[in-house]
Design a protein that fits this description.
The complex is a heterodimer of chains A (335) and B (512).
Chain A: H1 2-19, H2 28-50, H3 57-82, H4 90-106, H5 111-136, H6 140-159, E1 164-165, H7 169-176, E2 178-179, E3 182-183, H8 184-202, H9 204-214, H10 216-221, H11 226-252, E4 254-255, H12 263-273, H13 285-304, H14 312-334
Antiparallel strand pairs in A: 1-4, 2-3
Helix pairs in contact in A: 2-13, 3-8, 3-9, 3-11, 3-12, 3-13, 4-5, 4-6, 4-11, 5-6, 5-11, 7-11, 8-9, 9-11, 12-13, 12-14, 13-14
Chain B: E1 10-21, E2 24-35, E3 39-43, H1 50-57, E4 65-70, E5 73-75, H2 80-85, E6 88-91, H3 103-107, E7 114-115, E8 120-121, H4 123-135, H5 152-165, E9 170-174, H6 182-197, E10 201-205, H7 209-215, E11 218-223, E12 226-232, H8 238-246, E13 264-273, E14 277-285, E15 289-294, H9 300-307, E16 315-320, E17 323-325, H10 330-336, E18 338-341, H11 345-349, H12 356-361, E19 369-370, E20 373-374, H13 376-389, H14 406-418, E21 424-428, H15 436-451, E22 455-459, H16 463-469, E23 472-477, E24 480-486, H17 492-499, H18 505-508
Parallel strand pairs in B: 3-10, 3-11, 6-9, 9-10, 15-22, 15-23, 18-21, 21-22
Antiparallel strand pairs in B: 1-2, 1-4, 4-5, 7-8, 11-12, 13-14, 13-16, 16-17, 19-20, 23-24
Classes of the chains: A mainly alpha (335), B alpha/beta (512).
Chain lengths: 335, 512
């Protein structure tokens, strides 16, 4: 038996070695990120030429504020996807976090305490996700699908189905204020992205995330506490989704019980466009950010070009499928 | 001999079958004849060519040359479906049943009797047909219960029944008893003998020589891709058969152990785990290579997993350097000074999409982190050092490990473990699927490590490897240790006998 395996296993390696031994392609990750930067650039140029309304600070600020919440969730979603997991509950946790902070401030709580409790609520949902997924080993798709339903329902229960509005100025600053002409929410997003991207590349703890997603069994045998890593990824995801909810409530001056619907699929699409793999082990925060940016620009372009809003879904879907197809094809060519 | 086979009693004749794989000739002009109504066993070491020959018969591989005659007519078997149409049914070691479906649905898979224009399954008809097929085995199996709820032996029978329903005349059983208990085996044998009575021809592949004698009429021995001989099972004894299987000379490919075993490092006493292994006791000294021989499934890997803290033992103790240890995780095992190179590199060893560097540093990330941040330069330097020391062939350490050859991948895994400077290194099939050059390098490396005082446990299914490398050899058979013998007293024949479940006659003074 060993002899057959011998033949079968050594041959692909041999082929690669002799086939393109000297050809030093740039690292795959970087190449992928560059590719999206290229696409983003092309889209931006096309929009600049096509409409005078695109390249001005008002429009770009609006775009940035619009995608800040998605980008913040994408940071955590990237981590979850790299572990080989999946989190469908982020949209509903966004709504829950936004509603908790809204209701608490409305009933007279200090805004900081209210925000803290909202973030805790998000982490609690993430904790439940993590426990069910790593403890009982329920498939992440099923677990977070169930949790999405639970969190949505919970938001409706605590709000009675009504939006909550009228908040103090201090709270509205989070989503509407400016620091040196830059929207505060965008600033928060940029800081989180920069820190997140740095840590995901450099932190020992986050390196484990790649090992777990790349090969769970090998990670176990290498002495990595696989369950702890996966569990914490979901807790982090819940936290970031709730933070996005707080920002959304502040930005809209109102907490809507059905805010965030569709966020989960948009964010997952963006991460995958950005190079994260649903099979785990691959992805970067920079890539995911570029994915979010690309989707946001295209939506903005469609609006500016007076294309019916109903077309957005078709375009986003086509981009998602073509990004992944392109990736598969380019990898296949390299063998 | 040059004429076409004309004996009507041969239902199958394979002639001069040759099959090459890159770098190896798996089958070298092998002849094989199967008579009507006989049970014909094929035996040989791992890699002797048994599976390849059966895959050619089953249409999985095409031979590079040679002919296959069925009832005297030559056929070119193009794919597994064609083989089935020709009446050849292969029952693999791994069952291919639908666990959630009922016995009758499994037996009739894809050929359910239907009635009416909508093609509604005729449940009663299906039941009747399934029961009729099963009746040949004189077994009482409820055809309505899901296959999942049957014992493995009964599942095996369902699998065979399915093959028979497709009008098979030749039945190939590949290691059918490897998962069975003694009682279940008896039951299966009864079923197989029943088939023989009804005129089926059975090819029986097994590692267990005792069983082969029990059930086979004739035995064909393969060695290194060549047929040694076909003998009647009444005309040969177990020793003769083993001699035919292993008869080859050892080269000094494995080097010589320079070190003299030092103090005791590891002691295992009466270790047992579930149905996997029981009452295993041995010790390991510094500088010693302790081989573990046995058949696939004998419990060696399961033992290694317990030693490394992946699984837990039910009873028994593990003592490391005089202190009893209780490992709750591989992480603890690593910190205690153990390392484990697992058997399945692809599934349990490599982070395939990741760089060579990342694959090497995974076991000792802490060495490269400061305030929780990784210093990539230090990682790179360390990985490069490993690459140089183990002569891993890769253009750079950032290359994805999946681009390396099997031998180099294995060296990457070894590098990962050597970096934690273990005192006890467990290697499980360390040279599986790698080329001869890399094998020799890995042997030299293990020798070298032992010389530096490491204790090495070498699990291998390749007899020459265990014999050539080990200072002592422990042999497991179905979870029990059937012997532990020093190199000076070890021979392939003796290990083979122990691995096949014959107790050690030299030690106990009787034939068992």
């Amino acid at each position: 038996m060993s002899r057959q395996q011998n033949g079968a296993e050594s041959s692909p390696g041999m082929k690669l070695r002799t086939g393109k031994s000297q050809l030093q392609l740039p690292r795959w990750m970087r190449a992928h990120e560059l590719r999206i930067v290229g696409v983003v650039f092309v889209v931006a140029v096309v929009l600049t030429v096509a409409t005078p309304y695109f390249l001005n600070s008002d429009n770009l600020t609006a775009v940035a504020i619009g995608f800040a919440t998605d980008a913040i969730i994408a940071i955590a979603m990237t981590v979850v996807l790299i572990t080989g997991g999946f989190d469908l509950s982020v949209g509903s946790v966004l709504a829950l976090g936004g509603m908790v902070v809204g209701l608490l401030i409305h009933s007279g709580w200090n805004m900081w305490t209210a925000m803290f409790v909202a973030l805790l609520a998000g982490m609690a949902i993430g904790t439940l996700n993590g426990l069910v997924i790593t403890g009982i080993k329920v498939n992440p798709l099923i677990t977070t699908l169930g949790m999405m339903s639970i969190a949505t329902s919970l938001t409706l229960v605590i709000s009675g189905g009504y939006p909550v509005s009228s908040f103090p100025k201090g709270f509205l600053f989070i989503g509407q204020g400016f620091v040196a002409h830059i929207p505060f929410s965008v600033l928060v997003m940029v800081i989180l992205l920069v820190v997140g991207d740095f840590l995901l590349r450099r932190a020992r703890w986050l390196r484990l995330v790649y090992y777990v997603g790349s090969n769970e069994q090998a990670a176990v045998l290498s002495g990595i506490s696989v369950n702890r890593v996966r569990f914490l990824a979901y807790v982090f995801c819940g936290l970031m989704a709730a933070l996005a909810g707080v920002i959304a409530t502040s930005r809209l001056s109102s907490a809507f019980p059905l805010a965030g619907a569709g966020t989960e699929l948009r964010v997952i699409s963006a991460c995958v466009i950005g190079g994260a793999s649903l099979a785990g082990g691959e992805g970067t925060i920079l890539g995911s950010l570029l994915g979010v940016l690309l989707l946001a620009l295209i939506n903005n372009g469609l609006v500016l070009l007076n294309v019916s809003i109903y077309w957005q879904g078709i375009v986003s879907g086509l981009i998602l499928i073509s990004a992944v197809s392109f990736d598969i094809l380019s990898r296949r060519k390299r063998g | 001999m040059s004429g076409r086979p004309d004996r009507l009693s041969d239902v199958l004749e394979m002639r001069h079958i040759v099959k090459d794989f890159p770098g190896v000739r798996a089958l070298d002009s092998v002849d094989f004849e199967l008579r009507a109504g006989e049970i014909h066993a094929i035996v040989g070491e791992n890699g002797a060519g048994k599976s390849t020959l059966m895959k050619i018969l089953g249409g999985v591989y095409r031979p590079d040359s040679g002919e296959i005659y069925l009832q005297g007519k030559v056929y070119d078997i193009v794919d597994p479906r064609h083989a089935r149409l020709l009446g050849i049914a292969v029952v693999h070691q791994e069952l291919s049943l639908f666990p959630g479906l009922s016995v009758s649905e499994n037996i009739l898979a894809g050929e359910q009797p239907v009635r009416g224009p909508l093609g509604i399954v005729d449940r009663q008809g299906a039941r009747t047909r399934a029961t009729r097929v099963l009746a040949q085995f004189e077994l009482d199996i409820d055809t309505d219960i899901p296959v999942r709820s049957l014992s493995i032996a009964y599942q095996q029978v369902v699998e065979i029944a399915r093959a028979l329903l497709q009008d098979a005349r030749i039945l190939v059983l590949d290691e059918p008893t490897s998962a069975l208990t003694e009682k279940e085996k008896e039951m299966l044998f009864k079923a197989v003998r029943g088939l023989k009575e009804s005129g089926y021809s059975v090819i029986y592949i097994s590692h267990r020589l005792q069983e082969v004698f029990e059930i086979a009429d004739r035995i064909t021995v393969l060695r290194d891709g060549k047929k040694v001989d076909t003998v009647s099972s009444s005309s040969v004894d177990i020793d003769g058969l083993i001699r035919m299987m292993v008869g080859r000379t050892l080269t000094d490919f494995f080097g010589r152990n320079a070190s003299i075993p030092g103090e005791e490092l590891l002691r295992v006493s009466e270790l047992s785990r579930g149905g996997r292994f029981r009452d295993i006791s041995f010790f390991l000294r510094r500088g010693e290579i302790l081989g573990f021989a046995g058949l696939v499934g004998a419990g060696r890997t399961e033992l290694a997993r317990v030693l490394f803290g992946v699984d837990r033992a039910d009873t028994g103790t593990i003592t490391l350097k005089g202190k009893e240890i209780h490992l709750a995780s591989p992480g603890q095992a690593i910190r205690s000074g153990l390392a484990y190179v697992s058997e399945n590199r692809r599934v349990e060893g490599l982070f395939r999409g990741m760089a060579v560097r990342a694959n090497i540093v995974v076991t000792h990330l802490r060495d490269f982190s400061q305030f929780g941040l990784m210093r990539k330069k230090a990682e790179e330097a360390s990985a490069l050092e490993s690459v140089r020391r183990l002569r891993i062939q890769t253009p750079d350490v950032e290359r994805a490990v999946s681009n390396l050859s099997g031998g180099n991948q294995q060296k990457v895994v070894l590098a990962r473990w050597l970096a934690v400077k273990p005192e006890v290194l467990i290697v499980d099939e360390p040279t599986r699927g790698i080329d001869v050059g890399a094998k020799a390098e890995i042997y030299a490396l293990l020798r070298n490590l032992a010389a530096q005082g490491m204790g090495i446990i070498l699990i291998s299914s390749e007899l020459p490897e265990v014999l050539g490398m080990s200072d002592r050899i422990a042999v497991l058979y179905e979870g029990r240790m059937t012997g532990i013998i020093p190199k000076s007293e070890a021979s392939q024949e003796r290990i083979m006998a122990l691995a096949a479940g014959f107790s050690d006659s030299t030690e106990k003074g009787d034939g068992g």
